[in-house]
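Reviewers of the previous submission asked for a worked example of the structure-prediction workflow described in the proposal, so we include one complete record here. The input consisted solely of the amino acid sequence. No template or homolog information was supplied to the procedure at any stage.
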Amino acid sequence: MVKHPDATQSPTKKLFVKKHLYLIIVMAFLFTGKTFAQHHFSGHSHAHASFHPHYTYHYHSHSSCHRVNRTARIHPERVSAPMAHEAEFTFNTGMLSNHELLDPKVTSRQPVFAGSVRYYFNDWLGLSLSAGVQYLSGRDTGTFSTGVPGISAPGLYDFSAQAFTIAAGFTWVYFGQRNYQVYGSVEAGVSIFNETDRYPDNTESQATGTKFSGHCSLIGLRYGHTLGCFVELGLGYKGLVSTGISYQAGWKKAHRFS
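From that input alone, the workflow returned the following structure tokens.
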């Protein structure tokens, strides 16, 4: 019996083809899976990486804010009040001025109205220019004519006067923090009096005079930021007790605590 070569080699060739086909399929699967894995994880990595700038910025922005706030809290030029090279405008009213206390003939108790402009050279010392006005009235004694030539008699007459005071001085800050400050001041100037006297015979006379005047505030307390109120205890033309409002115009102070 003669054997044909094709009959014996055909199964071997088929097995060879199958093995190579399986190998090609496995390699194709592995290559495809590797490519998919690389694409997925690289995309995931890039997606996460895109968030890093946000978190980094978020962290740095918070850190910078905290750092600025800490600086604002501890920096002496940002906490003290008032600051150097700032202006302050005040308006106040007081009672019991030196014109009343030093002249027993004055019987009225009219308030004093005064205003001041201050300029601070540094954080604790400033120059001030002030003006005030007060209306006074009372009764005094004098000598009047009796209508008989050469004969006069004492008597009482009423008087009223307007006292205008202009003074300059210094203000110093004992202690100042954020919204309040404790201070003192001293001023010296002149008072101008426009007086009208009314006599028993229904006649009048007018006179103008000047005298030295001033004011010393032993202690003052101001509360407020740019706009505030204050009270002072002192002796002088502004009164024994004085209260008012104050405006500190420096832009640095207005933006000191945001």
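The beta strands are 87-95, 112-120, 125-145, 152-177, 180-198, 204-224, 227-236, 241-248. We consider this example representative of the routine output the project will generate in years two and three.
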